[in-house]
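Example 282.
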Amino acid sequence: MRMEVLQSQRVELMVGIAFALVAVGAGTAYYFYLSNKNKPKGCLDPENFKKFKLVKHTQLSHNVAKFRFDLPTPTSVLGLPIGQHMSCRGKDSQGDVIKPYTPTTLDSDVGYFELVIKMYPQGRMSHHFREMREGDYLAMKGPKGRFKYQPGQVRAFGMLAGGTGITPMFQVARAILENPNDKTNINLIYANVTYEDILLKEELANLACSFPNRFNVYCVLNQPPEGWDGGVGFVSKEMIQAHCPAPASDIQILRCGPPPMNKAMAAHLEALGYASQMQFQF
Ligand SMILES: Cc1cc2nc3c(=O)[nH]c(=O)nc-3n(C[C@H](O)[C@H](O)[C@H](O)COP(=O)(O)OP(=O)(O)OC[C@H]3O[C@@H](n4cnc5c(N)ncnc54)[C@H](O)[C@@H]3O)c2cc1C
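Predicted structure in complex with flavin-adenine dinucleotide:
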C-alpha cells in the first residue's frame, strides 16, 4: 500500500514537471513570436535586387561622399543585422558590377539609410557612384555576411580596420555603445595612408568623447602630417599588443581592410596567440 502511494506521488510529480516544462516552452515561444511580430519588417530581399532612391549626396572629401537613400515610408527600417552588408549593383562601360557595402546607419535610424563611399579613379563601382545624382535609384540585395552579434557576447572587441574597412566596425561600435544594456568595451586601431583618408573622423571622435572608458581609437598613418601623435607606418604586432584586448576566451578581434592588410593582421594575431575563434574577418 505504502509503495503504491509513493508511486502515485511520483507520477503526479512527473506530470507536474512535464506541465511546467510545456508551460515554460510555450511561454518562451510566445515571447519570441511577439518580439519578432513587433519588430518592423526590413526592406531588403536576400534573393532579388530592390531599388532605393538617392535623396542626398554629400561630398566629404575629394574622393569620399555620403549617399543617403530613402526607405519606402518614413517609419520603414532597412532590416540589416549589425555588421552585415548588402550587394549594390551598378554599371560602367564594361557592363554590370556588383560590390558589397555596409551602411553607417542602424535600424534605429528609421526611414532612410546612408552609405559612405570612397571612390577610386579606376574603380568600376566607384564610377557608378560618381555618376549618381539625387533622384537616381540604386539596386541592392541582402542581407549578406556571416557576422552575428548579440549584446554582451564578448567582454571586449579589438578592431583592426583599414580605409573603408571602417564602415562595418563603425556600425558594430554604434550598436554596442547606443545600447544601454550592452557594456562591451571596444578598442579600434584604424589605419590609413594620409590624415585626409580617415573616414568618419567626426563620428568616431564623438563616440570616443561620449564613451571615454569604453571606446578607444588609435589611428595609424603611413604618411602622417607634422605633429601627428598617433601611430606611424603599418599596424604592427606591438600596436596590437598595446591597444587591443589580450587573447582570452571572452574577447574577439575583428578585421576589415584591403586584402594585404587583412593578411598581415591575421599573421600578427596568430603570432600573438589569438586563437582562430577569437578572430573574425568581415
Ligand atoms: C564587407 C564589405 C563592406 C564594404 N563596405 C564599404 C563601404 O561602406 N564603403 C566603401 O567605400 N567601400 C566598402 N567596401 C569596399 C567595396 O566593396 C569596393 O571594394 C570598393 O568600393 C571598390 O570597388 P570598385 O568597383 O570601385 O573598385 P575595383 O574596380 O574593384 O578596383 C579598381 C581599383 O581601385 C583600387 N581599389 C579598390 N579597392 C581598394 C581598396 N580597398 N584599397 C585601395 N585601393 C583600392 C585599386 O587600385 C583597384 O585596382 C566594402 C567591402 C566589403 C568586403
